[in-house]
Q: What sequence folds into this?
């Protein structure tokens, strides 16, 4: 069975990394083996006596000997990939199941782009079902002309496509508790996703409205029933902000803000207001609930940092990680994701000895600004216990902090902007644990 | 190679480098078709509910904690508990004096810097299952009740567009502005 999973054809050395078995994936793995076995048995039973050429055909699986499913209008993943799903959580399951988050299963994905159905979600009062013909984006406040744009109108504007991550500033809060939780990489760090976003540069619309020189901020507000609102500095809005209409080529999904969201590359997810319905130009920040009560960073002295917008440089190894089991000594690939809200990832170093020594991982191109970069490093595992870490540095020279450094900077109650180094402990028996270092 | 050729090729290399550095290989878009429709006063009024710390945007109306207690019991208590104690949703009282401890508790009373935010948020988003259903008087009243529960104003202190922004929250100076730190 192991042989069918490895890609060692053509004299290439079988990559042992392929033999890593994801625990939550085991069901599909077993189903797959059962299906193969069933096919073999059935074939053997119906054709007891055959010539040599036909014997070869009986060895083929059922799907190779009968026509497949008809064409369909919208595709779905293989049913064997059913375990590849978001982990869904809500802090208020009884009164508000729509207030919560779902996390991207980072450890089950590859490359850099998150499939739309697996992009993380964070909603404050559920997902609105917006009719685009009735939706408007209104730009008003300190402007010469208050303007209203329908999604259809915006679709006539010149557009840009940019690949950017979106990360909730509450991401990795599961690693801020007193004891390391034994959960998957995605359950800890999966409030991070990356897409190609296409839309209209916000600066175009601001110019059309004619911004009053007195304006320095804008209030961005969504059309969900929480009317989620955040204050955004005008210089960011003019710099690289976008009114995003498309995600990975298709219209933005309802969970991501259909029919339009504000995209502020590199800045905390909550500010990338979904279901965007208004931008009000103002002279001062509004101090909304989600920029005072929440998404502020309490320090040990009891004071809180407010308006901490860019997300820190960060990385995590996605494979091997908790929930997988090493399949004996040999060559594995250490693979993971790195990103920074301040620009490009310049470097990712990997340690397999608790941070005593570090090796540069290969960054897979293209390395884009404020986007996810995949890193890879071959690793010959000798079968002994090992402690795996990755440490990212961005082009501005920011270095991902250790857990100790990060923890010391904030109150014990603080949960946001955790970009500390993740540590996975590989045991000699092949199991992998989340540990604090 | 002549000096000017070197200069030219250096300039070319610099342009290429700059192009790579910004990833903006296509020329920046500087002009749209100008299709925005004038936003009507009614359209704006429906959305324009944000309240600034200065009080700008506060509507007419008023209310005190006595009236607010009734609103709270009918519209908030099922989620925020008796006297704002919390459960199943967030506690709205408590935590004062804990922010510098290892058990910091952040609530309206202990953490929020502005009373205007409480009015703004209650009006825009609460009660969770029926936002925008309270009258302005009810929002003023329940705001007064939550502030009173936290010992910030007295039971007969009337809140309106003038008195609400004047309420000094205990943690008013607890925030450091990082908006310029990029």
A:
């Amino acid at each position: 069975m192991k042989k069918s999973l490895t890609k060692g054809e053509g004299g290439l050395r079988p990559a042992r990394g392929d033999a890593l078995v994801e625990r939550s994936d085991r069901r599909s793995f077993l189903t797959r083996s059962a299906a193969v076995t069933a096919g073999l048995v059935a074939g053997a039973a119906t054709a007891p006596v055959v010539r040599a050429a036909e014997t070869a055909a009986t060895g083929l699986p059922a799907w190779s000997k009968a026509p497949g499913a008809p064409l369909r209008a919208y595709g779905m993943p293989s049913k064997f990939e059913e375990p590849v799903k978001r982990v869904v959580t809500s802090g208020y399951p009884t009164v508000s199941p729509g207030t919560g988050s779902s996390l991207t299963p980072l450890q089950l994905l590859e490359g850099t782009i998150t499939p739309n159905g697996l992009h993380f979600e964070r909603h404050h009062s559920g997902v609105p079902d917006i009719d685009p013909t009735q939706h408007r984006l209104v730009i008003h406040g300190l402007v010469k002309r208050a303007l209203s744009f329908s999604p259809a109108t915006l679709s006539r504007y010149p557009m840009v496509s940019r690949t950017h991550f979106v990360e909730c500033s509450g991401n990795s809060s599961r690693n801020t508790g007193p004891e390391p939780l034994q959960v998957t990489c995605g359950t800890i760090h999966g409030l991070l996703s990356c897409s190609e976003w296409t839309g209209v540069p916000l600066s175009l619309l601001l110019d059309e409205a004619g911004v009053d020189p007195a304006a320095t901020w804008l209030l961005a507000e969504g059309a969900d029933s929480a009317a989620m609102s955040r204050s955004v500095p005008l210089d960011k809005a003019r710099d690289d902000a976008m009114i995003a209409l498309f995600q990975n080529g298709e219209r933005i999904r309802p969970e991501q803000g259909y029919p339009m969201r504000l995209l502020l590359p590199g800045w905390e997810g909550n500010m990338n207001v979904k279901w965007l319905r208004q931008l009000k130009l103002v002279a001062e920040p509004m101090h909304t609930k989600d920029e005072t009560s929440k998404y502020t960073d309490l320090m040990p002295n009891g004071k809180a940092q407010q308006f901490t917008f860019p997300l820190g440089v960060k990385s995590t190894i996605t494979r091997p990680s908790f929930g997988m089991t090493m399949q004996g000594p040999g060559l594995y690939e250490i693979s993971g994701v790195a990103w920074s809200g301040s620009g490009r990832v310049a470097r990712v170093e990997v340690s397999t000895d608790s941070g005593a020594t570090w090796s540069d991982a290969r960054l897979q191109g293209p390395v884009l600004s404020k986007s996810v970069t995949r890193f890879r490093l071959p690793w010959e595992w000798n079968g002994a216990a090992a402690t795996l870490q990755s440490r990212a540095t961005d082009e501005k020279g920011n270095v991902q902090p250790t857990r100790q450094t990060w923890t010391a900077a904030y109150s014990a109650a603080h949960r946001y902007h955790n970009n500390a180094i993740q540590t996975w402990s590989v045991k000699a028996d092949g199991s992998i644990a989340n540990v604090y270092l | 190679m002549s000096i000017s050729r070197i200069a030219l090729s250096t300039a070319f290399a610099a342009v290429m480098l700059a192009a790579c550095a910004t990833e903006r290989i296509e020329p920046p878009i500087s002009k749209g078709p100008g299709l925005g429709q004038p936003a009507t006063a009614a359209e704006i009024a429906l959305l324009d509910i944000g309240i600034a710390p200065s009080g700008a945007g506060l509507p007419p109306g008023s209310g005190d904690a006595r009236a607010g207690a009734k609103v709270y019991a009918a519209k908030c208590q099922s989620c925020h508990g008796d006297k704002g104690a919390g459960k199943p949703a967030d506690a709205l009282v408590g935590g004062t004096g804990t922010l510098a401890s290892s058990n910091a508790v952040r609530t309206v009373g202990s953490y929020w810097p502005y009373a205007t935010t409480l009015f703004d948020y209650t009006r825009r988003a609460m009660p969770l299952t029926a936002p925008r259903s309270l009258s302005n008087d009810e929002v003023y009243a329940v705001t007064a009740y939550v502030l009173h529960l936290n010992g910030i104003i007295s039971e007969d202190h009337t809140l309106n567009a003038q008195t609400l922004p004047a309420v000094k929250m205990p943690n008013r100076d607890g925030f450091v502005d990082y908006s310029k730190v990029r």
Summary: Residues 52-176 of chain B form a domain with the Cytochrome Bc1 Complex; Chain D, domain 2 fold (CATH 1.10.760.10). Strands of chain B lie at 37-38, 175-177. The first helix of chain B runs from residue 3 to 22. Chain B touches chain A through 57 residues (CB under 8 Å).
